[in-house]
Write a structure and sequence with these properties.
This protein has 67 residues and is an alpha+beta fold. Helix content is 28%, strand content 24%.
């Protein structure tokens, strides 16, 4: 099963590589260069969108706004 890793429940795991902008399995780039793990390749493919949305949410959260 090349390119995939199973977690303790037996589910496959995927990461988004920040160097190559692609979904990878456990044999991809170094973990510090990746986001994840994600349960599906589809979730991993949208990792950057998720990061952008979370950043917007934090920027708009009055508990974190010093203005």
């Amino acid at each position: 099963m090349r390119g995939r890793e199973r977690d303790v429940s037996g589910s496959e795991q995927y990461w988004f590589c920040l160097n190559h902008h692609r979904v990878e399995g456990p044999r991809g780039c170094a973990y510090q260069d990746r986001l994840g793990p994600y349960a599906t390749s589809e979730e991993a493919a949208h990792a950057l969108e998720r990061v952008e949305q979370r950043n917007r949410d934090w920027d708009e959260d009055p508990r974190w706004n010093d203005e």
